C-alpha cells in the first residue's frame, strides 16, 4: 500500500530543514513571523521519524500472521538508504580533504552509521547523517518489535507503554535543557539530549501505533481538508510563539500524528494536489535532498567565492535549485539502480543456492 499524498510532505519537511540550516536569514524567511517558525524547522526530522514508523506498519502490518524476516528486511532497508548516504559521505569527505583535513575516526563512525551513539562525533563530516544513524536503530528494532511485541500484546498496552516512553523523553529533555547541567553545543550533554538514538525511539514507535490506527480506520476515508488545514495552522502558531520548550525529540507528535493520519485518510483536494506525479517525484527525491545538503552547499559556497557572488538570496536560491535538481538525478541514477542491484543480488544468491541444492538432491 502506497499513500502518495504523504510522499510530497517529505519534500516540504526537507525544504524546511534546509531553510533552518540557512539560519532563516534569507528573504522571506527572515521576516519576523516566518523567522520564528523556520528557526525551529529542524522539527522536520521528528516528522521524518514518525512517518518512518507509520510507513513500516503500512508495509508490514496488513500481514498479521506473517513475521518480518530480519534478513530480507535489513537488506531492503540498506538498499533504500545506504547508497545515497554513502555518496553524500564521500562528497563530504572530499570537501574536507580539499579545504581542510578529514577526521578519520568521525569518518569511520559515519561510514557504519553509528555516529549518534558517540557524543562529540555527530557533525564533523556530514552533519545530517546523524538522523540516519538514529534510523538505523529503528530498522534494527522493528523486526523485534513487530514479531515479538506488537503481535503479543494488545493495542491498548502498546499505546500506554509508548505514551509513557514519549512523556518520559519530553520531561527528561526539557528538564535538562533548562537546567544548569545543560551546555550549548558542542557539548556531550547536548549531543546526548538531541542526537542519541534512544531519545528518538518514541517517535518511531508513535508512528508504528499510528500505522495500526490507520489499518483499522482505512475505510473511513473522507474529505479532511479543513481538519488538515487547522492542524497546519496550529503547528505554525505553536512554532512561532514557543521559545521555551524543545520540540526536538518528539514533542510535536501531538500535532504530527493526527496530521499524518488525516492526510492518509483524506480524499479531498489536498490529496488530489499532493498526488500530482511531479510533486510525488519531489517527495521521492527528498531523502537525497536532505542527506546531500551540506556537501552540495559547501562546494557551491567555494564556487560562489571564486566568482564573487556575495548576495545571500542569490546564493541560497541557486543552492536550493541545484540541490533539488541533483537530488532528482540521484534518485534516478543512484537510489533506484542501487536498490535494484542489491535486491537483484539477493535474488541471484537465492537462485544460486537453489541450483546447488537441486544438484545435491539429484
From TrEMBL:
Gene Ontology terms, MF aspect: acyltransferase activity, transferring groups other than amino-acyl groups
Keyword Acyltransferase: yes
InterPro entries noted in UniProt: Acyl_transf_3_dom, Acyltransferase_3
Record's GO cellular component terms: membrane
Domain of life: Bacteria
Coiled coil ranges: none
Entry keyword Oxidoreductase: no
Keyword terms: Acyltransferase, Membrane, Transferase, Transmembrane, Transmembrane helix
GO biological process: lipopolysaccharide biosynthetic process
Domain Acyltransferase: residue ranges: 6-331
Membrane-traversing stretches: 40-60, 81-99, 127-146, 158-177, 192-214, 226-244, 250-266, 278-296, 316-334
Name under which the protein is recorded: Acyltransferase
Top-level taxonomy: Bacteria, Pseudomonadati, Bacteroidota, Sphingobacteriia, Sphingobacteriales
Amino acid at each position: 500500500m502506497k499513500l502518495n499524498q504523504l510522499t510530497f510532505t517529505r519534500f516540504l519537511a526537507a525544504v524546511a530543514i534546509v531553510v533552518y540550516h540557512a539560519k532563516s536569514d534569507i528573504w522571506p524567511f527572515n521576516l519576523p513571523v516566518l523567522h520564528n517558525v523556520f528557526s525551529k524547522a529542524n522539527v522536520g526530522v521528528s516528522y521524518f521519524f514518525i512517518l518512518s514508523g507509520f510507513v513500516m506498519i503500512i508495509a508490514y502490518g496488513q500481514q498479521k500472521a506473517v513475521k518480518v524476516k530480519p534478513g530480507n528486511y535489513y537488506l531492503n532497508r540498506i538498499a533504500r538508504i545506504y547508497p545515497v548516504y554513502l555518496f553524500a559521505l564521500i562528497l563530504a569527505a572530499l570537501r574536507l580533504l580539499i579545504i581542510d583535513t578529514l577526521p578519520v575516526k568521525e569518518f569511520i563512525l559515519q561510514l557504519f552509521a553509528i555516529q549518534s551513539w558517540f557524543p562529540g562525533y555527530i557533525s564533523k563530516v556530514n552533519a545530517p547523517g546523524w538522523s540516519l544513524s538514529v534510523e538505523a536503530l529503528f530498522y534494527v528494532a522493528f523486526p523485534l518489535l513487530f514479531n515479538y511485541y506488537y503481535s503479543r500484546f494488545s493495542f491498548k498496552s502498546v499505546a500506554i507503554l509508548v505514551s509513557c516512553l514519549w512523556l518520559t523523553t519530553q520531561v527528561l529533555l526539557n528538564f535538562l535543557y533548562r537546567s544548569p547541567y545543560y551546555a550549548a553545543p558542542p557539548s556531550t550533554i547536548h549531543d546526548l539530549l538531541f542526537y542519541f538514538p534512544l531519545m528518538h525511539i518514541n517517535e518511531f514507535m508513535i508512528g508504528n501505533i499510528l500505522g495500526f490506527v490507520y489499518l483499522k480506520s482505512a475505510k473511513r476515508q473522507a474529505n479532511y481538508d479543513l481538519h488538515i488545514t487547522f492542524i497546519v495552522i496550529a503547528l505554525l502558531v505553536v512554532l512561532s510563539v514557543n521559545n521555551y520548550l524543545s520540540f526536538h525529540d518528539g514533542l510535536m507528535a501531538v500535532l504530527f500524528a493526527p496530521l499524518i493520519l488525516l492526510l492518509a485518510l483524506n480524499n479531498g483536494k489536498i490529496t488530489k494536489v499532493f498526488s500530482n506525479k511531479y510533486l510525488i517525484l519531489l517527495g521521492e527525491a527528498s531523502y537525497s535532498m536532505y542527506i546531500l545538503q551540506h556537501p552540495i552547499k559547501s562546494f557551491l559556497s567555494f564556487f560562489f567565492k571564486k566568482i564573487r557572488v556575495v548576495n545571500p538570496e542569490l546564493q541560497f536560491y541557486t543552492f536550493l535549485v541545484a540541490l533539488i535538481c541533483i537530488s532528482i538525478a540521484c534518485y534516478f541514477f543512484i537510489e533506484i539502480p542501487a536498490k535494484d542491484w542489491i535486491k537483484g543480488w539477493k535474488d541471484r544468491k537465492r537462485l544460486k543456492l537453489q541450483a546447488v541444492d537441486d544438484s545435491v538432491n539429484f
